[in-house]
DNA sequence: AAATTAGTCAACCATTTGGGTGAATAATTT
DNA sequence: AAATTATTCACCCAAATGGTTGACTAATTT
């Protein structure tokens, strides 16, 4: 289920602390858990948990060296969200151009007959 | 705080049902609450609540006509998420090019001295 | 005026979430 | 071998989430 992935990514990115972590990683490169935690007011454990969430969403990867865990940013998954948005946009634009054409040609064939569950299209706000 | 807005938007988009609602609206145009709910297996009330969440995130607007509420999609806020992502990407690329330059010029000035809290940069995975 | 229809509000419930603490594990340092 | 350091794991807790049902309001229809 690709939907699941997308949900996980968006949920992970939906938290301010996690976004800050990602930003830190992107600007400083791989960081240890403790180094990351130093930037926040919350406990090391909480940061560790946030990292886990990011990891499960694929937004971060972990390279363990001895007792140290290096966390690196992974921007690729965010492309999935861009994709979703892009898809939405193109459907929307397609629909708009279809409507426009309807207006131009004055095509009567698509007139709703009233038995339809869908309401007449009152057009975009 | 703009961060709050971004969180609200990402959280709203992080739910599968809500994304499906958005998609429906984008492809069919404004729909009534009941018409929307017809597409889901959950109760009308639940859908109503999801719509409220989307509304609070600005991803949807409501036009009330008599007892009917028409819900329309609003894609603009999603641009904010794109912006955030874009920012992240550019910081990342900037950093990569800076590292590359370091390698090329072999600049010794940036050598870490050991008292630094930050670990040596082991480079991206 | 009565009944129906469209939708929200309020309360309830189970689960998830974001935080905290203390103990456990594993690698280093002394 | 003992102490320290880096991190996770296992619970605890309050608040938020996603769903339900039942009552309520308001607009239509009959």
How would you summarize what this structure contains?
The first copy, chain A, is mainly alpha-helical.
What does this structure look like?
2 copies of one chain form a homodimer. The first copy, chain A, is mostly helical and 125 residues long. The first copy, chain A, contains 5 helices and 3 strands. A 3-stranded antiparallel β-sheet of chain A has the order 1-3-2. In chain A, strand 2 and strand 3 (68-73) form a beta hairpin. In chain A, helix 1 runs antiparallel to helix 4. Residues 109-125 of chain A have low confidence and may be disordered. The interface between A and B is large, with 46 and 46 residues. The structure holds a DNA duplex (30 and 30 nucleotides).
Multimer state = homodimer
Q: According to CATH, what is the class of the domain at 2-73 in chain A?
A: Mainly Alpha
How much helix, percentage-wise, in residues of chain A?
55-70%
Termini Cα gap of chain A: 34 Å
Beta-strand percent range of chain A: 5-15%
Overall shape of chain A: elongated
- Average residue-wise pLDDT of chain A: 87
Biggest interchain interface, per-side counts: A-B, 46 and 46 residues
Give the strand line-up of the largest sheet of chain A.
1-3-2
Quickly give the CATH architecture of the domain at 2-73 in chain A: Orthogonal Bundle
Coarse structural class of chain A: mainly alpha
**N to C succession of SSEs of chain A:** HHEHHEEH
Rg result of chain A: 23 Å
Low-confidence stretches of chain A: 109-125
Number of strands of chain A: 3
For the report, how would you describe the main beta sheet of chain A?
A: 3 strands, antiparallel
According to CATH, the homologous superfamily of the domain at 2-73 in chain A is: Winged helix-like DNA-binding domain superfamily/Winged helix DNA-binding domain
Stated plainly, the CATH topology of the domain at 2-73 in chain A is called: Arc Repressor Mutant, subunit A
Give the number of helices of chain A. 5
């Amino acid at each position: 289920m690709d939907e699941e992935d997308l949900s996980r990514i968006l949920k992970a990115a939906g938290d301010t602390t996690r976004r800050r972590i990602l930003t830190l990683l992107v600007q400083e490169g791989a960081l240890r858990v403790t180094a990351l935690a130093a930037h926040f007011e919350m406990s090391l454990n909480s940061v560790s948990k946030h990292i886990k969430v990011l990891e499960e969403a694929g937004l971060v990867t972990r390279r363990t060296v001895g007792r140290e865990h290096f966390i690196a940013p992974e921007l690729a998954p965010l492309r999935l969200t861009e994709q979703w948005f892009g898809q939405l946009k193109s459907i929307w634009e397609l629909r708009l151009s279809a409507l426009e054409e309807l207006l131009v040609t004055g095509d009567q064939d698509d007139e709703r007959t009233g038995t339809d569950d869908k309401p007449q299209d009152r057009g975009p706000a």
